[in-house]
Amino acid sequence: MASNRGVAYVGPGRVEVQSIPFPKLEDPRGRRAEHGVILRVVSTNICGSDQHMVRGRTTAPSGLILGHEITGEVLEVGRDVETLQKGDLVSVPFNVACGRCRTCKEQHTGVCLTVNPSRAGGAYGYVDMGGWIGGQAEYVMVPYADFNLLKFPDRDQAMAKIRDLTCLSDILPTGYHGAVTAGVGPGSTVYIAGAGPVGLAAAASARLLGAAAVIIGDVNPKRLEHPRALGYLTVDLSLDVPLGEQIAEILGTPEVDCAVDAVGFEARGHGHDGAQHEAPATVLNSLMEVTREAGRIGIPGLYVTDDPGGVDQAAKKGSLSIRLGLGWAKSHSFHTGQTPVLKYNRALMQAILWDRIKIADTVGVEVISLDQAPRGYSEFDLGAPKKFVIDPHGLVPA
Q1: Residues 187 and 307 in one domain
Q2: Distance in angstroms (rounded) separating the CA atoms of residues 377 and 136
Q3: At what angle do helices 171-181 and 197-208 cross, to 10 degrees?
Q4: What residues form DSSP beta bridges with 142?
Q5: Helix or strand or coil: residue 153?
Q6: Residue 139 belongs to a domain with what CATH number?
Q7: CA distance 253 to 213
């Protein structure tokens, strides 16, 4: 039997590359999955959501094989698969979805009703998401392949743009979903909280959607240098200057049409002192302050129901001090939840292939080997303005 290796979470702050079983066409409950395929992983990305687990901020068990952002080559095809064949190059949405239940048929693939016995929604290599083995590995099994996988139309073309196309599994659709649900359109003014990869993907998506002004804010000034060099407007939240005042200096008004939370539950406060301390409701409350009346707020940033490292007992259960009254008074609309990647990935693939968006440059893709994954996690955790992409087989062109 062929060998396999994967990146395992072994404890707070620690990951290591381990030998793991070669995948079988079976689901986590041991049932035969002839609707699936086995992939040779071409690229697999380190995500901020992975970092939440690695920091010990979830109930993830030791030994969990990480990785939900996967691009691969079909190696083995289940008996029931009809539209794919060996050698196809495909993008894997991070959502595990059956394609058969009500929510899947309504394109809400982030909350599939059948792939996770404990709750709605499944994902690869993620805590409480159904037990599906992650793809930060040499090989991985993907179920319901006809429904889930996006086949690239031309292999050579796809490999030439693989640094961009690897972002289709999560980060680009997630940023795009944040912008779409925030109501970004031609002429919009947009504020995006967070200059990490998801925030940058949301900014690039806002440009693609025709926004007039895209402002990115972060408590880490170093993270703002890259988007500023790309022509985005920025605000430094480590300064003791209110967010609304900084926005007013740019737009002439302290409010924007729409906003995106690309930070999530490990948010920090604003200002010199506040930026040193975690304050999980800060982003959502600040977005309500700076979003105009009847504006919309997209929330692709992750919020959890159980956070062992929460700043207080309420936060440990996902209960935050949100100023809902302010949002109600301003008639805001909020949209949360996992991104339904299948809703967007084909159109975004076309945008990449036709050079409408250069997402790898925007998010700072850096390709590393599987053995370098622990280093990638460490640097990303320290705030490196990069998107680390793991290349397990040395297939990504130099």
Answers
A1: yes
A2: 12
A3: 60
A4: 37
A5: coil
A6: 3.90.180.10
A7: 13
